Amino acid sequence: MRRSPIVPALGIGLCLALVTSGAWAGPEDDEEATDEEAAGKAEEKTSKADEAGDDEARPSRDAKETSASAAAEDPYDPSEDPALSYKFIGIRFRDIIVPKFIINLFAEGGATVNAFSFGPEFVYRRDSLEFDLALSYADYSMDPFMFKGNDDDIRAMERVWSDMKLIYATVDVMYEWPFDNGRFAFALGGGVGLGIVVDHLYRHQVYPLDPNNPDPDDPNAWGDCTGHNNPNVTFPDENGQPQPFCDDDNSHYPSADGSPYIEPSWANGGSKPFIFPWVSLPAMSFRFKPTKNLQTRLDAGFSITGFYFGLATHYGL
Fold first, then answer.
1. 286-300 average pLDDT score
2. Do 165 and 302 lie in a common domain?
């Protein structure tokens, strides 16, 4: 059988075609690859340049952010954000003054009393509105003074003194006006509270050592009665009839062992209170805040017993 020459011819033609195609296509593909590589290298250089630029810019941005954060956390910046709440804890001192002229509105005699008080205080402030919650101990101890009702005659004069103490729970509501970036502030408001009375109020019936010249302002010009008509010192009443200083209207005499008479509390029918209200209006304060977490305050105000001055210092929570 004869072999057809077309098969070798086709084989040879196919090989030539492949070789020829490879020879002509090779340079064009190389050029395209070269262009792609160049573009890739250019993009890589651009990316590196961008990264280098970011690296150079990042310290500047970080410095700005650090500066802003430092300003926000500056411990010496006393300003307050109206949208935030600020809390402080500290101690408060007050001198509560009960002046004699206030006592004389209701009675004769008496003396000016200074009651020193102190205790912890919690302060809450937001957008210039402040609440001051305090628990304080006040010493109302009084030296002996002479005392009687305005409508009573001189024979009703008694010697009164006390070692009473009060434990107050109070709240002041204040509105403040800050200035100098919050470093200083003036506040105005009022306060209410309740005090628990402890210890004793003492009182004695007395007689004048000089019956012809009884001095209602000098406790040393009076002696203590020891019982009814003991001693039998008299003073004329409105009808000119002699009446004893040491009468039997009450039993405000020392006991047999010399112990003073102790006035019962309201709960036992006496005149000594066992609770006492605190009302202050107006209450004023001037605050100095040198740093974000430290403040000092001067207080002054009027209360139902007189007026007061105070000092408080707090640390921020």
1. 96
2. yes
